[in-house]
Every structure is written in structure tokens, then in C-alpha cells.
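Lab channel / #folding
Pinned by the channel admin:
"Please post every new chain as: sequence first, then the C-alpha cells as a reply. Keep commentary short and put observations after the output so the thread stays searchable."

First post following the new format, from NK:
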Amino acid sequence: MKPNRPTIRDLAAYDEIIDVRSPAEFAEDHIPGAINCPVLDDAQRAEIGTLYKQVSPFEAKKLGAAMVSENIAHHLRERFRDRPKNWKPLIYCWRGGDRSGSMTTIFRAIGWPAGQLDGGYKAWRSHVIACLQELPPTFRFKVIAGATGNAKTRILQAIGQLGEQILDLESLASHKGSVLGVLPDEPQPTQKGFETALLQRLQALDPARPVYVEAESRKIGNLHVPETLIERIRNGECLNVESSIEARVDFLLKDYDYFLTLPEFLINRLQALHSLQSRETLGRWQQLIHDAQWPTLVRELLELHYDPLYRRSQNHHFTGMAELRNFTSDDLSPAGIAHLAAAITQSRTAQMA
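Reply from TO:
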């Protein structure tokens, strides 16, 4: 570590965190709360990289210095002109090298006590990875289980509204967790961005209190749940929700109502099941979509795909299934969900009394 260089432990000591990497790098992931003031934009970074490899490092650094100087001048005029003398920014780039060093040097010359983060974003990334290994074992998870359509995510959120601690992985992942879980017009975060958001959430939880979480697979859409976390969840106490097929169909028709206006999108998503369902079954489902026979379609999806898949996976992966606690209801309306959430949390209180 270089002398007098702030580290990840020092983030709170600074008034503002400035990420000088390119917009694309920033979009992939960044230190929470940081603002993006690139000293090289995406096109400039690519141009300098090409020049470095194809011509020479000297020519690349010469042109890069001109670009960096122009961009820092722009940020000074547009973003930082009103900052007071005692303003204390922390500046970082990919590795804590030339890009952040350039802005730090200029800011210090102006008179601001700027800090250059030792190790840059790579240090932050190492911090995230280490914490996501260390934190999960400190929590006691209560796992909301149940077949698809039992409103597990809504129940989890209702438990949170009652003041209990929850970890809503699907919200963090912007995905409902199944082959049909893609949210239209809401892309998932990057893996790194997901893990940063997950770390923030875990750090806000109290290990002395239980944490409610939904039973999930190792992947939520395209994102991987960190191994240490998924293993800890799978050793949690399972609270199983069971509702009638009619209640589940009715709930799913409301919860996935956007599919009713996007039939072609739904058909395309169902193609992912071609290795699990026959051509005849997929063809029948496509026809049900064209005919807007939504209740029949949802019921068949549950009975022929989701329920068998659930029976195979949950008993195998979740050790808490051996001592399962069941909560039954045929009402998955908002009021029914609130009632289930209350019953689950009250059962915990009664058990602890």
C-alpha cells in the first residue's frame, strides 16, 4: 500500500466520492454513492488503448494527457466550481493509477484536500467479494418456501412492512426468478452491480434478529447468488406456504398481468422450455396464448412444469424441509397476503415465548 493513500475503510471520511472511470465502467458497477466524472469517455478510452497497443505507449500517453486535461477542466467548470475550500473529495479509477492521480493532483493544486483511493475500484471489488463470504454465516435465515404462485415475494414484502428484516433477492436482481421472471423494460443489473447492492443490504441487517428470505435457486435470471449466501439460506428454517391451485392461478394472472398485453414476448419466453416440454405441449400453450385462454394456460404451466420442478428441487436443496412448518390459505388477495405475513411472524413470536 502506498503511504498516505486512503483505503476502503476511509470512505466515510470524505464529502464526495468521484469515479473517474468511463461511463461504461461506471454503469457496470461502482462504489455506492459515487458520481461519475470520467477523465476519458468510452470512445476516448478505446482510442487511447488502441494507440497504446498499435503505435506506442508514449504516443498514447501524450494524447491521453491532453484528453484527460480537457475533461478535468470541463468537470471543474460544470460540476465543482461551487465547492468550498474545505471540500474533501475521494477520487478513484480502475486501479488507483494515472486517471485518478491526474484529477487528484489538479484538485490538490487548487487547494482541496483530495484523496486518491488506494487500489481504486479493484480494491472495492475485493472488499465486496470478501464481505459476501464473511457476512452470510452471521445471519439466521427463515425461508419462505412454496410452489410457484403462492405469492412468496409478496408475503416476504408484507413481512417487511410489519417491521421484520427481509432480504428480497428478486427485487435486487430485477427478476422474478423463473423462466417467465423477466421483467419487460427492466433489465437486470450486472453481476458486479448485483453483488454491490446485495452487500449494502446485508450490511443494513442486524445479525441478532432473524432475516426472512424467499427460497431461491442459485441463479435469478442471469445473476448468480453468491455461494456462501445460498448455502446459508438453504440451511435456514423453512416456512412453507400452500394455497389451492385456483388461488394460485388467480394470483399469477394479476401478478404477471403485463404478459396479457405482450403475447409474443410470452411465447418467446416459453421457448426456453423446449428441452423440458414436448413440441405438442408448447404448441398447445402457444395456441392458448393466441386464444387468450389465460387461466387454462397458467393452470397447465403450474401442473405440468412448475409444480414437478418444485418438488424435485426443494426437497433436495433445502435442509429445513425436514422440519417443515406449513401455512395454508386460499386467499392470495392483498388482504390474504397480509394475513399470511402476520401468521408467519406471530408464529415466530409464539415459538420464542
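NK: Residues 349-353 have pLDDT under 50 and may be disordered.
TO: also worth noting, The chain has two domains: 8-129, 136-352.
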